[in-house]
Structures are given as structure tokens and as C-alpha cells.
Design brief:
Radius of gyration: 30 Å
Order of helices and strands: HHHHHEEEHEHHHEEHHEEHEEHHEEHHHH
Number of strands: 12
Helix content: 40-55%
Structural class: alpha+beta
Distance between the termini: 79 Å
Low-confidence stretches: 1-5, 32-45
Number of helices: 18
Largest sheet: 9 strands, mixed
Length: about 500
């Protein structure tokens, strides 16, 4: 029979396939043992396992039917709305994919408790609860104790993973007073807010759904940034920092008057001075938190508005101060000319910060560092050139996780944009020794499990994520950080001459 089939015309073979598959589908529908389709809510206890071979053939036949229908419609031999069938097919595909992913995920969760007869919904809820428990347990040791008299913040966390945090202090324009964000658990929201203020941890009061709280997949539904503060509100508060900014504008005006005949030359000289004395950090992407497959569930992010010291912005989209190539290079000069002519410095300030300057915050033990986010390159450069000490900005933060695969840490070195010689295996071995040194020297606290095939680091204290980077990069950031926060390395027990030099830094970590 099979030998004869291949001699049939293609259309007739398709008709035979359709006829056989239709018969199979009809037999499936008439089989009393199957009963009505109750979806994922059916109690499967005691039922025979499905005949997966037959189910697979029926699905293949249905796929063939869909292809024939699409062809007929394309040839205009039939006319009807096919969108409902397409939506149903996508829904079935998604349910099958969800079931497969769930079956892959569940066995990897230690401590997952399931009951006989659990359906997909039961298993999904159990998995999400267990993921939340694991995240909260791993974040707990990383949560620092607030100092006496620490600022009090209240977090309102919702079931979709979004949160709004408010300070008990009345807004005065000097510090953030409201933060919005998202995190996979309520404890993750606490951790995210704490990382935002790592250099002075606040006391946190949490308002969240009652336990048990499951892990939440954060996304656009979690976003509560519309409830957050704006730059207009920040500027309207005035306050001490605002007054310092106005005073700096008046001083800059006086300097500009002295160089009014050639402002361009003055700005060029300032740029040359900054690039020699206070250069930007090369590869500032390495300041982002290190992500690996072991810490994706710990994701948390935050947004707020605040005044940022200009000196702590260490990386922009244009790596040389004052240099923009052909991307609107005239803007800093236009800002300087606008300041020179300004009779109303408050109006000048409102225009300067009228569009968001977006910065990404890197928390660290003595104070944060910042790098450019989505907007504001020219105004940041102009502020540096004009010696304006403050920037009114929208600040974003990604929380740092407590657990990493060492191989993932090494793979993340690509964030720095540098070449890393040597085999990957050798680099992993070298990083293990460096991390052992960080732990032995007391720079970080935690445990390194390096015996298995997947060495894993779990931290209970991490002063800054760049300390886990390659020694050359870490030493470069250490140098810049000490410039922003004099005496910072000594707070960690690191001799400055060691922390600034890549070879000495590596030797200090590796040697007993």
C-alpha cells in the first residue's frame, strides 16, 4: 500500500491524509474513556496516562489541516474568517510550551512540595511559592542592619511585583523622598531599596500581601513609575542643593564673562584639563550588576528623582569630555552662551533640566557612582565644563543579587568592552583565587563553593559589584572611586597603593 501511495498525485495524497486524520479525530472524540475535556483543572488521580502517540498524530493531522485551509484561502478557493482558529492554535501552543517549561523547571527546585493529582495550576503555584521562598532566604543575609536614627521608609508592595516606597521625612529637595520600582518578591523590594541607599541603609517598614507570598514575574504590569516623583516637583522644592546650584551658576557666569570673547576656546581648555585630570571610566558598562543564571529570580529595579553630584558621574555616551564627533557638538557652547546671557537663573535652571537627564546608579559602600542612562549626555558634559556641582536627574537602579556562578561572573567581563586573554577555564580559575582573596581579606563576606563543576559564590556582604570583576577593571574603578570619595578604600582595609594597581591588587588577593 505504501509503495502505491507515492504514485498518487500530491492533491490525492493530501486528501487521504486528511481523511485518515479526520477519522482518528472522530475516534478520539467518540472514545467514552476520554470523557469531557476539563482542561488543566481536571483531577488526574487514578486516570490512565494519555495515549501520547495518538495525541501526537492528531496534532500533526491538525497542523496539516491548518496548512490546507491557509492554502485554500490564499488561492481564494474558500472565504471565511480564519483568525479564531489561529488564536486557538496559538493558545494551544502556549499551553503545551508552558507545560514543557514547567516540567523542566520543577525538578530543579530543591524543597518543592507537590501532591498526587496536582494539575498544572497547582504545580505552577507551588513552583512560584518555592521560588519566592528561595529568593527571600538568599536575600535575608544581605540585608544590613540600619544604624540608630536611620531614615524610615515605608514600602507598599503589590501582588504584581510593583512597589512604591516613601520616606517619613518631609521632602526638602536634598534627598529622594519617593521611590517606585519592581521586584520578584516583597523581600526583593526591601533589598532593592536598601541597595539604593547602600552607604546609609534605612529602616524599612513593609506593607505587602499576607504570606504565603509567591515569586512574581515582573514586567510592564508591575510598573508603577507613574506614581513616582518628577523633576518638576524636585525643582519646585528648592532647598539647600538648589541654592548651591544657583550660586555655582552665578560663579560660572562671572568666569564666562571673563572669556566672553572666545567661549569655545575656554570650553576646549576645560575639556582638555578634565580629560587629563578627571577622565571618564572606560567600559563603564562594567558598573552594572553582574547577572548569571543563578540570580535571575533576584531581579529588582527602582526609579526616583534627585540631585546628583556632578563629580560622581563617571561615564557617558561620549568617552572624552567635550568631544561629540558629529553628534550636535555645538550644544555645550549653546548652554554656556545661554548661561552667560541669563538674567533669571531660575528660568535657566528650569530650561537646563526641562528634559530628563537619565542616570544609572551603582551603589557602593562610601557613596554611589553614576553613568549615563537614556538621555542627557550634552548637559552632563556642559555641567562638568562649567563647574556646576549638581545635576537634577532621574535615577534608575538595578539591585545586586547575592549569588553567582563564577563562570557567569567571568562571562560578564564582556560588559567592560575589554579583551581578556587566556582560555575561559583559566580565567575562571584565576577569578576563583581572586574571590577567595576577597573573602580571606574581609573585603566581602560570604561562601565560595568551588568543589563542584559549577563553582558558586554566595555573598552576605558586597560593598560594590565591581570588586568581583577582573583585577584590571576593578583597580581602574577603585582609582576613580577614591577620587570621588577620598579614603574609601581604607574603609575596606585596602591599602590605596594596592587597590589602584592591577598587578598589586591581584597579588594582594591571591597571596596568603
Amino acid at each position: 500500500m505504501r509503495a502505491l501511495v507515492r504514485w498518487l498525485p500530491a492533491d490525492e495524497r493530501e486528501d487521504i491524509v486528511v481523511g485518515i486524520s479526520t477519522s482518528l479525530s472522530r475516534d478520539r472524540a467518540e472514545d467514552p474513556a476520554d470523557g469531557p475535556d476539563s482542561g488543566d483543572d481536571a483531577d488526574g488521580a487514578g486516570e490512565a496516562a494519555p495515549d501520547w502517540d495518538r495525541e501526537w498524530k492528531v496534532l500533526l493531522a491538525s497542523a496539516r489541516h491548518a496548512d490546507l485551509v491557509a492554502r485554500l484561502l490564499g488561492e481564494q478557493r474558500a472565504f471565511f474568517d480564519y483568525r479564531g482558529l489561529a488564536r486557538a492554535a496559538r493558545k494551544l501552543r502556549d499551553r503545551i510550551d508552558d507545560a514543557y517549561n514547567l516540567l523542566c523547571e520543577a525538578p530543579r527546585l530543591d524543597g518543592l512540595r507537590l501532591e498526587r493529582g496536582d494539575d498544572m495550576g497547582d504545580v505552577r503555584r507551588a513552583v512560584d511559592l518555592r521560588r519566592g521562598e528561595i529568593v527571600d532566604a538568599e536575600l535575608a543575609p544581605l540585608q544590613p542592619s540600619p544604624a540608630p536614627g536611620a531614615e524610615i521608609w515605608t514600602i507598599n508592595y503589590d501582588q504584581r511585583g510593583g512597589f512604591v516606597a516613601d520616606s517619613c521625612r518631609s521632602p526638602d529637595g536634598t534627598e529622594p523622598w519617593r521611590v517606585t520600582g519592581m521586584a520578584s518578591t516583597a523581600a526583593g523590594a526591601e533589598h532593592t531599596l536598601t541597595r539604593l541607599f547602600l552607604h546609609r541603609p534605612p529602616e524599612i517598614r513593609l506593607r505587602a500581601p499576607e504570606p504565603p507570598r509567591s515569586w512574581a514575574e515582573t514586567g510592564w504590569k508591575s510598573d508603577r513609575s507613574a506614581e513616582g516623583p518628577t523633576l518638576r516637583e524636585l525643582l519646585a522644592l528648592r532647598g539647600l542643593v538648589y541654592e548651591e546650584h544657583l550660586a555655582a551658576c552665578r560663579a560660572a557666569q562671572q568666569v564666562l564673562r571673563e572669556h566672553a570673547s572666545n567661549l569655545g576656546a575656554y570650553l576646549a581648555d576645560r575639556a582638555a584639563e578634565l580629560n587629563a585630570r578627571d577622565p571618564q571610566l572606560r567600559g563603564h558598562g562594567g558598573l552594572r550588576p553582574i547577572g548569571t543564571s543563578d540570580n535571575r529570580d533576584h531581579y529588582g529595579s527602582a526609579r526616583t528623582v534627585t540631585w546628583v553630584p556632578t563629580r560622581s558621574v563617571v561615564g557617558t555616551g561620549h568617552s572624552e569630555w567635550g568631544e561629540f564627533g558629529d553628534h550636535r557638538p555645538e550644544v555645550p557652547l549653546e548652554i554656556a552662551e545661554g548661561l552667560l546671557r541669563a538674567a533669571d537663573l531660575e528660568a535657566f535652571t528650569a530650561e537646563l533640566f526641562g528634559h530628563d537627564i537619565s542616570l544609572l546608579r551603582t551603589p557602593a559602600w562610601a557613596g554611589p557612582l553614576y553613568r549615563i542612562g537614556s538621555n542627557g549626555n550634552h548637559r552632563i558634559h556642559a555641567a562638568k565644563l562649567l563647574k556646576l556641582p549638581w545635576l537634577a536627574t532621574v535615577v534608575y537602579l538595578e539591585a545586586t543579587a547575592p549569588v553567582w556562578e563564577v563562570a557567569g561572573i567571568v562571562a560578564a567581563d564582556r560588559d567592560t568592552g575589554e579583551e581578556h586573554p587566556g582560555s575561559f577555564e583559566r580565567r575562571v580559575d584565576e577569578r576563583i583565587r581572586a574571590i577567595e582573596g576577597l573573602l580571606r581579606r574581609g573585603v566581602i563576606d560570604g561562601d565560595l563553593h568551588a568543589d563542584g563543576i559549577r563553582p558558586v559564590l554566595r555573598c552576605t556582604r558586597l560593598p560594590a559589584s565591581w570588586l568581583l570583576r577582573a583585577p584590571g577593571y576593578a583597580a581602574r574603578v577603585n582609582t576613580l572611586y577614591e577620587r570621588c570619595y577620598p579614603g574609601a578604600l581604607a574603609q575596606l582595609g585596602v591599602p590605596p597603593e594596592v587597590g589602584f594597581d592591577p598587578q598589586q591588587w591581584e597579588r594582594w588577593l591571591i597571596e596568603p
